[in-house]
Structure formats: structure tokens, C-alpha cells
Amino acid sequence: MPDGLPLPRPSRPPRFGVNYTPARGWFHHWLDFDLGDVRADLDSIAALGLDHVRVFPLWPVFQPNRTLIRPRAVEQLVALADAAAERGLDVAVDGLQGHLSSFDFLPAWTGTWHRRNIFRDPDVVAAQEEYLTTLAAALADRSNFLGMTVGNEINQFAGAPHPDPDRIDAAQAARWLERMLAACDKGAPGRFHVHAEYDAAWYQDGHPFTPAQAARLGAATTVHSWVFNGTAQRHGAAGTATEHHAAYLIELAKAWALDPYRPVWLQEVGAPAPLVPPEGAARFTEATVANALDCPDVWGVTWWCSHDVSRELADFPALEYDLGLLTNDHRVKPAGAALARIAASWRGRAHRPPPRSTALALDVGGAEAAPGRSVCGPGGAFFEAWAALTARGQRPAVVLAELARDPAHLSARGITEVLHVHDVTGTA
């Protein structure tokens, strides 16, 4: 390859899947698990032409005591994975739930009279390791098992706005993540084990879970793209920043990665009403996925979520009820039809977007701790400059300020021009 040209990127078709929310009982279905109901749900997911599901065991149900991991619950998880395999669906499993749709699911042995920091207490951490290893090992011989995610947005327990946070610093967060990922790999060596944070890791100054951890630990970087974080409020449902929010997070992830080809998994993205009105859900889905797949090294897109939350269940935030691609009686909604069309159009096609040759330089006060990362969030100077560049028809990558003059790094990513925020905004 001539000097100055990037090496050819490995390419394959992108994956399309869904976060599995059971149609009957939501995640409380683990309390009265019915394989017939699960099979009906998976039939409706497979009919969309998707290829994988992300599954959520509830941690207190599976490990109700620190030294008890319920064998029957583990057997039910394996049965779900086998039912998915019968329908051509691969399975990724989240471990420490943790937090789901505004509800916390922590075992009794971590709270109140037994209150212990879930990231630092040695007994709790050892029990978490055993739990993750047990789930991974139970699935290790299943060919459709992709791997474990440590937990769903478990970083929300580490600081504000959580009402009772388990405080840690960035070094402690990194050590905890490394131990949990090692526990997953002990149970199922070599699988696609990752960790997942909500966007405080990318946007909140001082948050102990950092962009560097997200982009450097685990088999891939996961991003969760939710436009109710201020993006849709500022830019509207059809605004450039809103329809490119997932792509923006993917490009932030690429900036921190040490491996220029590190895969990025768009692990959660959805169309939250009323910020994205129901009549605009299909358009939002099509635009979001198209823009995300205009980024290099995207492993796949996993939509949130499969089925609506039943209105019989109380106390969810209003936007959580109608995020499904399918209704509770398995009817396909417009967003579901849109994702099915997209998945069909990509079947067998390699994902090989052209390089993003123009990059916007990002200064967060140091890549490791990122003390100034709030510039990356909606309303922040960097976020708004990237969105403005995109609205002008450009396809900006993101490069850390520390690497903006590194020829080898820029070449590996196909970057030939580096702009700064003031080049976009005209301000000093």
C-alpha cells in the first residue's frame, strides 16, 4: 500500500437486531417464565428479518443471594437462547441488570441493611464475577451465543443524577470493568464480550466511566443513542443533529479507540415519543440507521426495543411504553417495517463506507480523564460545531486534539483535513 493511504478496512454485512422486551410481563417474565410466550415473541422478531437479540436477565431474580445463582433461572436463559437459535437468531446477554427503563434491579444483599458499594465492596465484586462467569459458561457451547455485556448502563449507579449513587473514581471504574470482562471471558473464552454505558460517559464532566474506557476495554465499543438527552429538544425530531446523533456517538467512539478498525456496536437506539412523533418514527429509523452506517467499522444496529411495554404495567415514564417495533399482540409498527426493509436491503452487502476524510479536532482537556467532555454534549461547542458541519453536507470524523497532528493516526483513519471548532463557528 503506498505511503499516506489507509490500509483496506475489513468488511462484512452489518448486523441488525433488537433489544428483546417480552410482550407479556416485560422483564418480569423471568418470574413466571413461559417458553411458549418467548417463542411467539421470537417468531415475530425473526419475521422482521433481524439476526440477533439482546437479552436481559434480571440480576436479583438470577442471584437473589450473594452465594446463590439459581440453576432454574440459568436453565431458562439457555432455553431462550436455544429457542432463538431455532429461529436463526443469535443472542447477546446482558449480565448485571441493573437499570432498565427507569427502574433499578439490585439484589437485596447490596442495599438497605446490607448496603455495599457495588463497584468496590470485595464480596459484592466477587459475587458479580461468579455470576457473569456462570451465565457465560452456561451459553459457551451454543453457536448462536455472541457474548456478554457486563450490564445495561450500569454507570448510572456511579453518580448523579442517581438518588443513591455508589461513588467511585475513574481508576476504580476501570479496574471494575476489567475484572467483569475477565469474568465473562473466563466463562466463554474469546466471545464478543463488551460493556455498555449511557451517554454520561461521553458527555458528563467528572463522570467516573470515561470515553477511553468505553473505546478501549472489551471486544468492541458500544454506544447508546437517545435523543431525549437534549438533542431533540434543541434540534427537533427531523433536525440534522437528531437524525445524526447515533452517527455522532459512533464517531466519538472512533476518536478514542487505539485500534483504528475497532468495531462500534450501536447497541441501543430508539424513537422516543413525543420528541419523535409516532408519525415520524419510520423516517427517524431510516435516517438514523442510514447515517450510522455511513460511519466505518460499525458492527451492527440493535434497536430499542422489540415489543411495546403493556399499558397494564404502571409507573414507567410515558416515552417507554411505545418504543417497540411490534405491539404487544405482535403487530408490526411503522418503525418495525422500516427496520425490516433496511435489514433486507443490506443482506449480503459488505459495509464499506468511504473514509471520513475531514475530521473535527476535539479538546476535552486530556484524553484519559476527559475533564472537559461536556463540550461533546447537546449544546456544547463541539457537539454543535459537528452538527453544523454535517448540516453543510460534510461527513466529519472526530479526532482527539492530541492526535490531530499525528500522521500515522490520521493516515490509518483516512483523514486528510483537520478542522477546529473555530473554523466552523468563526469564533476565536
UniProtKB/TrEMBL annotation:
Cited SUPFAM superfamilies: (Trans)glycosidases (SSF51445)
InterPro entries: GH (IPR017853)
Top-rank taxon: Bacteria
The protein's name: Glycosyl hydrolase
Organism: Streptomyces cirratus
